């Protein structure tokens, strides 16, 4: 036990001190924020800037109602209007005004300008010019509001009661409410649910890959430099294996821990709730068991390896099975009760990923949870046992990689 | 200290070790000899519990291997290597803690050894910044630091320059005085002759010769003649009274059919060679080795 801990400590400290680790500690959060969190934040964040938009209205009758509607509908913090409309054409030469407007955009006096031609009622086209024309939100809001204004104008022109027109365009907004086990209703967005599970699976994937790879690397290194023999004249193979798994898992957890802190700090700063996780404890069980299963697979598959290239191959194969659930993630989210998802949830290699996804959407039936957990736990024990046997023999095999019959023999030798 | 009896180990179809028995006492240097692939390393690995024997018993002070035994043994494998990216002192301390030494204590003793080996200034360097010889010193420190009672050294001198060889020899003799049993596996017969008390010679997994070095040499009798000479000595091989010959450029070791013919031999050489030394001695371990392993004829014909 003491030796196991000494090995764990060594594996942990030597890797923590390495340059590669320190770099990954900094680089990964940047990538994670880029890939996972940022779109979520952007999607859920209200637009907090006040835009000044110029309007050149040839019809002379749309600019007023448009400004009024935008003022009613869109606000930013402190009740400030989201868009300030500036009427640029009060008469005069249209071309000069348009030329001046372009100048104003270039000088930054306005964010953009809208040109509503006289025949807008018939043709239905307006122009929006700005330095940044890919701002979908502005374009979408303006086109919708102009459409409304024109529709109202047309209806009123046909003699429809203006108050009736107002009620015609009542907007429908869907608020999603999640019903939890106790019958309580909670508000939660699809994004939040998705990210809850997503982050968990990402962490699992990351931990398995990083510590799995380190594990294989360290075995390959010790085989190449023959430190293995000195180690094995100091402790048992199982001390070595358990020590390595512990040390490198600790490393993975340490890394994830630091990133989680960064994540929490970031989300507090931005005032967003990124993760809405219920049944955290249940997810943790799947997480830990899943991790152990993959760690054992890495030990079994990695210990016969003799070169870095082979180690890379093994890592790729193992990670495939982990990435696979990502492909089906969306469908699992939409329909967690489909037969395919249920069946896949019972394949131990995929149980953790799918169950993490399913739990965050809707708690699966009890029998499925118990069943998949038992199956997973049994496979962890079985694979650990087999990996230990392979490890014991394979770590002394130099030169050539053992063949499958040889590995089979390793499993049988007591 | 160590008693091995009837050790047997098979790998798939090959019998690597068959019927090897050893007895190594405290305060003794034991030479485990044999040609390449004879089964020396397998024997050592089995003794150190790195691999399990198929048959035979291995006893340490009368007890089979247990978890305590790990802390009593020290091993320097033939293939050298360390964690390249780690610092020297950290590496030494790590291996010492695996042998049950308290880290603080390990640091202190490590300092002593680093000083004794003359590498104390490299304590904070990374291993791969060290020269090969210095790396070997670090490995020796690693297998010495926990004061093992059984020290197994596989070719400890190879890779050292003559100065360091003497340094190591002195250190090993010191350790031996502290009642440590040392097993010494090597091809360098001169080293064995200088250092070992008892030897065991293994060939193709079987012990072919074992016992005390002195006894073995006596057994072979004084029928060897060492000659230092100048001139072309190649004709010595074909003389009728010569049974076996190892002829080098300026030296030869001859075995006669009958040692009483030595005067006759001397007469034959007269006028052909300038003789600087002529001595009737016990055979060198080298010639016993060649004799036993049966490669002498091949080696001789290759010369």
What does this structure look like?
With 414 residues, chain A is of the alpha/beta class. Chain A has 16 helices and 6 strands. Chain B has 2 domains: 2-211, Rossmann fold; 222-281, Alpha-Beta Plaits (2-Layer Sandwich). Residues 296-303 of chain B have low confidence and may be disordered. At the A-B interface, helix 1 and helix 9 of A face strand 5, helix 2 and helix 4 of B.
Number of helices of chain B: 10
Structural class of chain A: alpha/beta
Structurally, how many domains make up the residues of chain A? 2
| Binned strand content of chain B | 25-35%
Helix/strand order of chain B: EEEHEEHHHEHEHEEHEEEHEHH
For the record, the CATH class of the largest domain in chain B is Alpha Beta
User: Which fold does the CATH topology of the largest domain in chain B refer to?
Assistant: Rossmann fold
Helix content of chain B: 25-40%
Instruction: Give the quaternary arrangement of the chains.
Output: heterodimer
Quick check: average pLDDT of chain B?
87
Principal-axes shape call of chain B: globular
Portion of residues within helices of chain A: 55-70%
**What is the tally of beta strands of chain A?**
6
CATH architecture of the largest domain in chain B: 3-Layer(aba) Sandwich
Whole-number count of domains of chain B: 2
Mean pLDDT of chain A: 79
Q: Give me the secondary-structure category of chain B.
A: alpha/beta
What characterizes the major β-sheet of chain B?
6 strands, mixed
């Amino acid at each position: 036990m003491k030796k196991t801990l000494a090995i764990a400590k060594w594996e942990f400290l030597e890797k923590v001190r390495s340059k590669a680790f320190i770099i990954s500690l900094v680089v990964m959060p940047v990538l994670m924020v880029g890939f996972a969190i940022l779109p979520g934040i952007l999607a859920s964040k209200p637009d907090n800037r006040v835009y000044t938009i110029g309007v050149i209205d040839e019809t002379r009758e749309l600019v007023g109602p448009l400004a009024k509607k935008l003022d009613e509908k869109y606000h930013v913090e402190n009740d400030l209007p989201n868009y300030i409309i500036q009427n640029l054409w009060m008469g005069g030469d249209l071309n000069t005004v348009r030329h001046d407007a372009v100048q104003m955009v270039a000088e930054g006096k306005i964010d953009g300008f809208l040109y509503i031609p006289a025949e807008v009622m018939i043709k239905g086209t307006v122009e929006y010019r700005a330095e940044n024309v890919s701002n979908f939100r502005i374009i979408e809001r303006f086109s919708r509001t102009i459409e409304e204004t024109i529709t109202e104008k047309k209806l009123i022109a046909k003699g429809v009661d203006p108050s009736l027109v107002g009620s015609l365009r009542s907007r429908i907004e869907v608020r999603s409410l999640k019903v939890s086990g106790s019958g309580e209703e909670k508000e939660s967005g699809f994004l939040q649910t998705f990210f809850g599970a997503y982050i968990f699976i990402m962490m699992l994937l990351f931990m398995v890959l990083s510590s799995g790879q380190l594990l294989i690397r360290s075995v390959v290194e010790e085989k190449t430099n023959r430190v293995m023999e000195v180690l094995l004249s100091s402790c048992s193979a199982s001390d070595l294996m358990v020590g390595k798994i512990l040390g490198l898992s600790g490393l993975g957890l340490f890394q994830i821990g630091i990133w989680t802190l960064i994540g929490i700090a970031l989300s507090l700063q931005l005032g967003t709730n990124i993760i809405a996780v219920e049944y955290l404890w249940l997810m943790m069980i799947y997480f830990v068991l899943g991790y152990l299963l993959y760690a054992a697979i890495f030990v079994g598959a990695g210990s016969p390896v003799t070169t870095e290239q082979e180690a890379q191959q093994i890592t790729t194969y193992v990670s495939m099975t982990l990435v696979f659930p990502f492909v089906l993630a969306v469908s699992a989210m939409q329909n967690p009760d489909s037969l395919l998802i249920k069946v896949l949830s019972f394949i131990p290699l995929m149980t953790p990923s799918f169950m993490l996804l399913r739990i965050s959407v809707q708690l699966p039936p009890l029998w499925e949870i118990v069943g998949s957990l038992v199956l997973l736990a049994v496979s962890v024990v079985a694979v650990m046992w087999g990996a230990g046997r392979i490890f014991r023999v394979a770590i002394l095999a130099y030169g050539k990689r053992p063949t499958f019959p040889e590995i089979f023999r390793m499993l049988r030798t007591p | 200290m160590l008693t091995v009896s009837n050790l047997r180990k098979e790998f798939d179809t090959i019998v690597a070790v068959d019927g090897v028995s050893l007895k190594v006492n405290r305060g003794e240097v034991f030479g485990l000899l044999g040609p390449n692939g004879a089964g020396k390393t397998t024997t050592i690995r089995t003794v150190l519990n790195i691999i399990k024997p198929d048959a035979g018993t291995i006893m340490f002070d009368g007890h089979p291997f247990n978890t305590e035994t790990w802390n009593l043994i020290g091993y320097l494998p033939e293939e050298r290597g360390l964690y390249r990216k780690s610092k020297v002192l950290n590496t030494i301390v790590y291996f010492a803690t695996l042998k049950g030494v308290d880290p603080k204590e390990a640091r202190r003793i490590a300092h002593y050894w680093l000083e004794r080996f003359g590498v104390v200034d490299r304590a904070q360097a990374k291993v791969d910044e060290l020269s090969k010889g210095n790396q070997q010193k670090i490995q020796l420190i690693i297998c010495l630091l926990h004061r093992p009672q059984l020290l197994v050294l596989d070719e400890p001198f190879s890779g050292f320059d003559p100065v360091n060889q003497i340094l190591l020899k002195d250190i090993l003799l010191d350790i031996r005085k502290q009642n440590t049993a040392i097993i010494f596996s090597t091809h360098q017969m001169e080293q064995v002759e200088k250092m070992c008390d008892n030897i065991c010679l293994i060939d193709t997994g079987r012990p072919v010769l074992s016992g005390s070095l002195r006894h073995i040499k006596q057994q072979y009798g004084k029928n060897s003649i060492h000659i230092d000479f100048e001139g072309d000595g190649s004709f010595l091989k074909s003389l009728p009274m010569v049974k076996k010959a190892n002829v080098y450029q300026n030296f030869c070791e001859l075995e006669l059919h009958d040692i009483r013919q030595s005067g006759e031999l001397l007469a034959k050489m007269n006028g052909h060679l300038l003789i600087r030394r002529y001595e009737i001695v016990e055979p060198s371990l080298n010639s016993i080795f060649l004799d036993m392993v049966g490669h002498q004829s091949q080696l001789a014909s290759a010369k």
